[in-house]
Amino acid sequence: MSAIIKIKNLSKKFKDLTAVNKINLAINKGEIFGLLGPNGAGKTTTISMLSTLLKPSSGTAVVNGYDIGKHPAKVRDSMGVVFQDSVVDSDLTAYDNLDFHARLYKIPNDLKEKRIKEVIELVNLSEYLKKPVETFSGGMKRRLEIARGFLHHPKVLFLDEPTLGLDPQTRRHIWDYILQLRKRENITIVLTTHYLEEADFLCDRIAIIDHGKIIVLGEPGQLKNRLRGDVIKIKLSRINVNIVKMLKRIKAKKLDIVNNEISIVTKNAESKIAGIVDILKRSNHSKIESIFIHKPTLEDVFLYYTGKEIR
């Protein structure tokens, strides 16, 4: 599969802060690719460089065959962007917002009306086309922004935290629209998110990014399978040094402690529960509030590779 985005040693510094630190990445044509990480990880800065809004401090990237430093105008012609913050004009109607965007990209008049009709139908806003955007809910505005982002037939669509601040039901609807969009438009979608379930549901591949570095890369299922075991989660009333020392005697691939919760990645988890409970009872300093076993999730993958929960 050919790569439509190629990133080589891309970095961005703001004075003493390194927001993106020498990342290397190839994103394939037609895939939904996710940059997964906490706030401040470098996701938006990466998108901003790829979309030519920020100049890299070093390194480079190629989008749809065009170097972001040498041919920024060609890159912008090749892409659409849905920013983290809303940028639709609330004083205009949905149609006016799309019409203005079409004019910016010089879409011919004979194609403009047809294209506006197509994109507004895809995000299920046809009956609101002539309504003022100020009357729209947050989810409707987000759908309009997504429609505007791919109005001009871009090869790549960047979605920066596309469902940030939306309620769970609206978020799920946005996911469905994104999947329909990829299928109908044959477009490459690059999204940033800190919602683990969003990355798991939507993305063909993800890169977990933290402190400006890519920690691990792969398909969600592959990343979960890499843990090769089950995850035991134990919540205690409190944790002391002796409990940690005793638990480390258990044969496990990884043991992490966040607040008063212990996460243990291990094979044959069921056979180790009794021994773990016995250790905790012998400590006499803590009460077990909950204990359960589950198959690895992306949250467990993030904890496994970074040693902390997603912020």
Unreliably modeled segments:
none
Give the overall average pLDDT: 91
Please indicate the percent range of residues in DSSP E strands (runs of 2 or more): 25-35%
- Count of folded domains: 2
- Order of secondary-structure elements: EEEHEEHEHHHEHEHEEHEHEEHEH
* Largest sheet features: 6 strands, mixed
Can you walk through the features of this model?
This protein is of the alpha/beta class and 311 residues long. The protein folds into 2 domains: 3-219, Rossmann fold; 228-295, Alpha-Beta Plaits. It contains 11 helices and 14 strands. The chain has helices at 43-50, 72-78, 94-104, 109-122, 138-149, 168-185, 196-202, 220-225, 241-247, 269-283, 298-306, and strands at residues 3-14, 17-28, 32-36, 58-63, 66-67, 79-82, 156-160, 188-193, 205-210, 213-218, 230-236, 254-258, 261-266, 288-294. Strands 6-7-8-3-9-10 form a 6-stranded mixed sheet, with helices on both faces. Helix 5 runs parallel beside helix 6 (168-185) and helix 9 runs antiparallel to helix 10. The protein is elongated and about 75 Å long. The relative contact order is 0.14. The model has no long low-confidence stretch (mean pLDDT 91).
Defining key terms:
alpha/beta, Rossmann fold, six-stranded mixed sheet, 11 helices
